[in-house]
Structures are given as structure tokens and as C-alpha cells.
Amino acid sequence: MKYCKACKKLHSDDQTRCSECGKKLSSITDINEPVRLAVVGGTERAMVTGMLKDAEIPFIEQNSLPQGVANELVTGYDVKLNNINLLVPYSAIPKASELLNTVETLKNPNEAYMDDIKKDIEKYKNNSFEEEKKMSPAMRTTVKVISMILLLALIALVVFGTDKVIEIIKGLFGG
Predict the structure, then answer these.
(1) 46 and 127 assigned to the same domain
(2) Cβ-based burial of 33 (10 A; exposed 0-12, middle 13-18, buried ≥19)
(3) CA distances in angstroms from 106 to 6, 55, 63, 100, 145, listed in the order given
(4) 29 within domain boundaries
């Protein structure tokens, strides 16, 4: 999956520019990357944020429109309360989308991508565990021993280096 770093909207892999803001899309490389679940306002906002809290899904509320008196005068809406982007971690999109589907007045913009999202999340989870499994216990022990030797060498270098610097300073002042 790809997403827009500016508006956080998800897009399919074949797209190169955001359909909303026109910015270049980026690939998702971290399953904790915040992405847009939905744009909400009013009672839907209260319902969805309440459901996310109950389900213990972390979320961020972000204004989707610039704030200001001019916008409120022109549109007639209090833009600080309407048009709020709800951002959730990419890994929480499937669970959060299920909750979103229970609100009949809201459209779920990520429903079309759900199969791809689930595959991506599974792939990222499997890759991280795979990398961890690649290091055998003997290799871990070797890395720990080498790290300890390097740490001791660094400490010795600091101690002897400090002694050498002090000798140079004493030599400058005739000591």
C-alpha cells in the first residue's frame, strides 16, 4: 500500500499521486505509521472516537481544513469541529475499519483496500520475526562477546588518551 505523507490517505500500489492533494505517494514501511481512517465531524466523530477508545486503538484527530474565521464565514461550519481526519496506526486499520462499518452514516474509504492491507500487515509482521529468527544463539553469544571486547577497548582508549592529553598539557606549562 501507498499513502500520502501530507493528508495520510491510503492509496493502491499502482497510484503515484494523491487523489486529494496531488502530492507524491510513499510506500508504507512501518506498520505503526499513522494513516487516515476517515474524515468525521459532529456526532460521527463522537461515536467513532468513543469506539476507538473502547477498543484501545490509538488515534490522532487532525483538522483536514485550514482553520480560520474566513472559512467559518464562507462555509457556515465551525471547521475546528467538522472535517476531522482520524488517524490510526496502519496495523490497526482492519480492526478500526470493522468499527467504522458499524456507523451507518459513514463511508469506509479503506474497505476497497482491506485485503491488500491485511496482506501487507502480515508480511511486515512475518519479516520482522524472520529477521529475528535468522540469528542463532551461538551467533548472538558471539556478537555479545565482540561487543563487550569493543566496549572495553573504547574505555581503555579513553583512559589512555586522557593520560596522553594531560601529559601534553603539563609539557606546555613546564610541569
Answers:
(1) yes
(2) middle
(3) 23, 18, 18, 7, 57
(4) no
DSSP H or E run through 2 = strand 2-4
Backbone angles phi and psi of 5, in degrees to 5: -70, -25
Average pLDDT over residues 32-46: 86
Distance CA(33)–CA(87), nearest Å, equals 9
Whether residue 149 sits in one domain with residue 89: no
Residue 71 is placed in which grid cell?
A: 472559512
Residue 101 neighbours by CB under 8 Å, 6+ apart: 108, 111
Task: Read off the pLDDT of residues 4-35 as tens digits, 9 standing for 90 and up.
Answer: 888 888 888 888 898 888 889 988 888 889 99
Range(s) of the domain holding residue 166: 141-175
pLDDT digits (tens, 9 = 90+) for 92-139: 999 988 888 888 777 788 888 888 888 888 887 776 544 455 678 888
How much is the pTM?
0.62
Residue closest to 37 by CA, chosen among 72, 10, 3: 10
Which helix (H) or strand (E) is 26 found in, with range? Answer: strand 25-27
